[in-house]
Design goal:
The complex is a heterodimer of chains A (237) and B (289). Chain A is an alpha/beta fold. In chain A, 35% of the residues lie in helices and 22% in strands. Chain A has two domains: 131 residues, NADH:ubiquinone oxidoreductase Nqo5 subunit (Beta Polymerase, domain 2, 2-Layer Sandwich); 71 residues, no CATH class. In chain A, strands 1-2-5-4-3 form a five-stranded mixed sheet. Chain A has a two-stranded parallel ribbon with strand order 6-7. Chain A has a two-stranded antiparallel ribbon with strand order 8-9. In chain A, α2 packs across α3. Helices cover 50% and strands 11% of the residues of chain B. The chains are: A alpha/beta (237), B alpha/beta (289).
């Protein structure tokens, strides 16, 4: 907020709140549930939170600032769904961003706290197929009642950034450190030819693999590729 | 005795080990010691990984380079893809201090550092420039009587700013000629084999990239195609099998330069495990013996 605007607001007795105050307040209330935040311009805040902390965040915002609910935007990232909850707090547009996997595909409704969210949540359910847990009226809003439930007009296929034919090599790269795996036939043939059965690479030696996989995580390549560490597979292959 | 750290990459040791076997035997004959780079990972590949995530691509490259720096040796690759990744990452780390700082920070979490002292060399450069064509010719014990078409591979043309892009391909040509083989011109030597476009459109890759090359090589009456890239090898070999689906039948041997030089130096084909190939390289080698 500019100095002049601040002065005008103050003379009119309008209670103003700064961007950073809101961010700090939410950080204090939500602690590690706040993943990060950005203030790209005056009176505009984006606060990224964990999906499980959504109700807690909206409650905290409501208790202190009595915000006006504006709307929710939905963004389909292919393997993940992102929802952006926009609120007006004293002329600040505060956006709570949260991302969850399309395998999970559901999030708590905020209609108990923000009655006006009822329609937009139904619209998002219609168009993207996201389920809002405990929604008071989980019915169609835009689409006809007989619209096939598996066909949501704005929902993208469950696919990540890697093109189909590159998925196996990328999956192999993340899980082993090499682009391809070695068959037992090649191992035997290597030995027969007087070579060690495997090359001295990450993919052949457990000692080096943890370091390699930590690099995958620390550069966020695993997330970009959509790799599931438990299943040792890409989430969309 | 010259010494280098050997960066094997993924495809050669895991799929076409005959290329590695030939290179090791050849360098031993040439009195060059290749020291294995322990704990190396995929370079990583200069197409998919690099396009997807530059930071990951640079971090892994820097880690691989740091392994060579640790043992104090320049690095030699047998694969042009690995060469491109490691040479270009090396140049980026030299010319972009901010990027290097970021990558250094990640490496330091693993107790590693890379100071930029390693030179990345493709084995064509080592043979031609470091050892010299005279030494290679001296080692040719069995001049090869064959007509060879060359497929340089796109990555062999990657060069540092201001460098002649034909430098390494000319070296490759002279090395093939040193074996006694006749190099035949077929006009589209520089056309890509189509390997990267297999990810997007198999039919385009096979019919618009590989097929014209096979057709022209056949027309030039070459006995084989010589390559320096495992991806091109896979494309030439598996591609010929896949093209049968579209009604095109070719049976062209696709031999690696290290294998060709090893044969010319008198190493018997039986010692090279040439049946790792999916094209009739072993048959070609037997015919030459």
């Amino acid at each position: 907020m500019g100095l002049l605007q601040k002065e005008v607001f103050s003379r009119r007795g309008i209670n103003t709140v700064t961007e950073i105050e809101i961010v700090k307040y939410l950080q204090k209330k939500l602690k590690e549930d706040v993943i990060n935040y950005s203030v790209p311009q005056e009176r505009r805040e984006y606060i990224r939170i964990k999906p499980a902390a959504l109700i807690k965040a909206v409650k905290a915002l409501s208790e202190k600032y009595h915000p006006r609910f504006m709307t929710i935007s939905a963004v389909d990232h292919g393997i993940d769904m992102e929802l952006l909850y926009h609120f007006d707090v004293d002329g600040n547009v505060v956006t709570l961003q949260t991302t969850f996997s399309k395998e999970m595909n559901e999030i708590d409704t905020i209609t108990d706290l923000m009655r006006a969210a009822e329609f937009i949540e139904r619209e998002i359910n219609d168009l993207f197929g996201v389920k809002f847990r405990n929604h008071p009226k989980p019915e169609r809003l835009i689409l006809p009642r007989d619209w096939p439930p598996e066909n949501r007009p704005l929902r993208k296929p469950h696919e990540g950034a890697i093109p189909p034919s590159a998925r196996l090599p990328v999956e192999t790269l993340i899980s082993t450190g090499c682009l391809t795996t070695m068959s037992s036939y090649v191992k035997r043939r290597r030995e027969k030819a007087g070579l060690p059965p495997s090359p001295p690479a990450v993919c052949a030696d457990e000692e080096w693999l943890p370091e390699f996989q930590k690099i995958m995580k620390q550069t966020n390549f695993d997330k970009k590729a959509g790799y599931d560490w438990k299943k040792k597979k890409l989430r969309y292959r | 005795m010259k010494r280098y750290s050997l960066f094997l990459g993924c495809q050669i040791p895991l799929r076409i080990a005959s290329v590695e076997i030939a290179a090791r035997k050849l360098f031993q004959k040439l009195d060059v010691e290749l020291v294995d780079l322990k704990g190396y990972s995929c370079c990583p590949d200069p197409v998919v990984s690099r396009t997807m995530d530059r930071k990951m691509w640079l971090t892994l490259s820097a880690r691989n380079l740091s392994l060579a720096e640790e043992i104090g040796l320049d690095l030699v690759t047998l694969c042009v893809g690995c060469y491109e990744t490691l040479a270009e990452a090396n140049a980026i780390l030299k010319h972009e201090p901010e990027t290097k700082k970021e990558i250094d920070e990640i490496l330091s979490r693993f107790g590693r550092k890379y100071e930029g002292k390693v030179k990345v060399r493709h084995f064509v450069e080592v043979l031609f420039e470091d050892l010299g064509i005279g030494k290679i010719k001296e080692e040719v014990k069995k001049p090869l009587k064959l007509r060879a078409a060359l497929h340089y591979g796109c990555h062999l043309f990657r060069s540092e700013e201001g460098e002649d892009i034909w430098r390494k391909s000319e070296m490759m040509k002279e090395l093939v000629q040193a074996t006694g083989a006749e190099v035949v011109d077929y006009g589209i030597e520089r056309l890509c084999c189509g390997f990267p476009s297999m990810h997007a459109d198999e039919e385009f890759s096979l019919k618009s990239r590989l097929l014209p090359k096979l057709r022209e090589i056949d027309r030039a009456k070459a006995d084989c195609v010589v390559v320096v890239c495992p991806a091109c090898t896979i494309q030439f070999e598996s591609g010929q099998v896949l093209l049968r689906r579209y009604g095109f039948k070719y049976n062209l041997p696709c031999i690696y330069l290290s294998e060709l030089l090893a044969l010319a130096s008198g190493i018997p084909s039986a010692e090279l495990s040439l049946d790792f190939h999916r094209s009739p390289v072993l048959q070609l080698a037997r015919r030459l013996e």
